[in-house]
Design goal:
Length: 495
């Protein structure tokens, strides 16, 4: 993998392309068995052959970076309702029709509904337009990862591009906060197709996964605010229906679908399943931190909306610096060390806010918490993106991108809902901790993240063979073994 296991190379996945045409990785790919470390390093640093010159590569990367910027801008500034349950179907559509088609369709869709949102005449129209617009990022976020994953082979160049892509997340996020804060303060609210021809859509997966995620997330996030809490009939009904749909989805994906929407063997590479669980807790922690940190600064400490936005500046600046530096150093530092540092960042940022008083000093509590949060989310985002895309075959890069974004948005929605439920229960019982309950819950989640990260033994993100090249090498070795055995056996004498 790009981030190698310190315990030695793993056997790798046993799925992937089944024909030579499907296993081609581009003009700069290697046959595998005869390649040496120096050649791998050269391939990992050179410009992909698909770009005739540097200008093409720059425009290609710029389009993907700006897409990440826009998604984060609207998430932080305008609370975009991103239908995270549609990430997996769009990832499969990208695998079928190619990332180029789905990526551009998502951008066009997003632009149309953003324009409609700007002309909204009432609050209800704005909510509907924002919700429908959220289908755009659900399409272009996983496909942007797919395009990067299929274009760049493991190595320093891939690390740099993914780091820059990650850097645009805090930039867009912070500018969204600033814009939203300024608007609140001064304005009103008005302010690849032929390669994957054999892939098919898993419609049974769509009709079970999507409603399952929507219903359970709705029940968890609304349970604390319903008239009778979790005893409210519509909360119980939606939660039970969601659980039934998820159970049906597990059965369909595991034993019915020929080409599952979320194939279980996607988690077969070493540490993939463990890393996915850790990311759910990590992104859940980050979601709780973002929401309740704004609440703490604005309502609990009494700061203005614009001041609250400005106090998030260290987080954006730190994310930009970390992402940029990471592109040049990811192949030099062990992945395990980076993950532990990320887990410590999550723990520190939530603990500081859990302990912070109403008159907390910015430099003693807020500033180090913001630095800790960017250490947590940005390092985890870069390291895991490189890990997952490097360990997935070309034909599954769309699903890999959908998995990455699903872990992000489902983790935020699910754990934020649980934190909100804990806060509501504390309030109903006459508790006085209020939002502090959410921060202590986040501290517990960050501790789980740190423990799991510490058990994942990842090496450096160095240049190496792609999944397809490893498969060809293993197939060549398998073919050679019978020949070597036959040559080593003495000839039988005739009687």
């Amino acid at each position: 993998m790009g981030l190698k296991n310190q315990e030695g190379p793993s056997a790798g996945p046993d799925w992937g392309p089944t024909s030579p045409d499907q296993m081609e990785t581009g003009p700069d790919s290697s046959d595998g068995p005869d390649i040496d470390a120096a050649e791998l390093d050269r391939l990992g640093r050179q410009r992909p052959a698909v770009f005739p010159n540097i200008a093409y590569e720059l425009f290609f990367c710029a389009s993907l970076l700006v897409s990440m910027f826009m998604a984060e801008f609207f998430i932080s500034g305008f609370n975009i309702i991103l239908p995270s349950s549609f990430l997996l179907p769009f990832g499969r559509l990208a695998d079928i029709h190619g990332a180029y088609v789905v990526f551009n369709a998502g951008l066009i869709w997003f632009a149309i509904w953003s324009l409609i949102s700007g002309f909204s005449t009432n609050y209800q129209m704005l909510i509907v337009a924002r919700a429908l617009g959220g289908l755009g990022p659900a399409a272009f976020l996983p496909t942007s990862i797919m395009l990067l994953g299929k274009t760049y082979r493991p190595g320093p160049r891939k690390n740099l591009v993914f780091s820059l892509w990650s850097a645009f997340a805090p930039i867009g996020f912070f500018l969204g906060i600033i814009t939203g804060g300024a608007a609140t303060e001064y304005l009103s609210w008005r302010c690849t197709r032929s390669e994957n021809a054999h892939i098919r859509m898993d419609y049974w997966g769509v009709v079970t996964v999507v409603p399952g995620l929507i219903l359970t997330t709705f029940a968890i996030t609304e349970g604390g605010h319903a008239p009778q809490g979790w005893r409210t009939p519509y909360i119980l009904v939606t939660f039970l229906l969601g659980i039934l749909f998820i159970a049906a989805a597990v059965y369909v994906e595991g034993w019915v679908a020929k080409q599952p929407l979320l194939p279980f063997d996607l988690f077969k590479p070493k540490y993939m399943a463990r890393l996915s669980v850790a990311l759910l807790f990590a992104y859940g922690t980050f979601g709780i931190y973002l929401f309740y940190a704004s609440f703490h600064i604005g309502d609990y400490m009494g700061e203005s909306a614009l001041t609250t936005a400005i106090w998030f500046a260290p987080m954006a600046a730190g994310g930009l610096v970390l992402a940029t530096i990471g592109g040049f150093t990811l192949h030099l530092l062990p992945g395990r060390v980076l993950l532990i540092l990320s887990g410590c960042g999550f723990f520190v940022c939530t603990l500081l806010f859990a302990l912070a008083p109403a008159n907390a000093n910015f430099w003693a509590y807020i500033f180090p918490a913001m630095i800790g949060s960017t250490l947590g989310v940005d390092i985890a985002f870069i390291v895991t993106n490189v890990f997952i895309t490097t360990n997935v075959a070309r034909e599954r890069q769309g699903i890999a991108g959908a998995l990455i974004n699903s872990l992000l948005f489902v983790g935020i929605s699910f754990f934020l809902g649980l934190a909100d439920l804990a806060v509501a229960e504390d309030t109903h019982r006459g508790g006085t901790l209020g939002h502090k309950v959410a921060f202590w819950f986040a501290v517990a989640c960050s501790a789980v993240t740190l423990i799991i990260f510490a058990t994942i033994r990842l090496g450096k993100a160095e240049s190496e063979l792609t999944v397809e090249e490893k498969m060809r090498r293993e197939a060549a070795v398998t073919r050679q073994k019978p020949l070597q055995k036959a040559e080593s056996e003495p000839p039988q004498q005739e009687v």
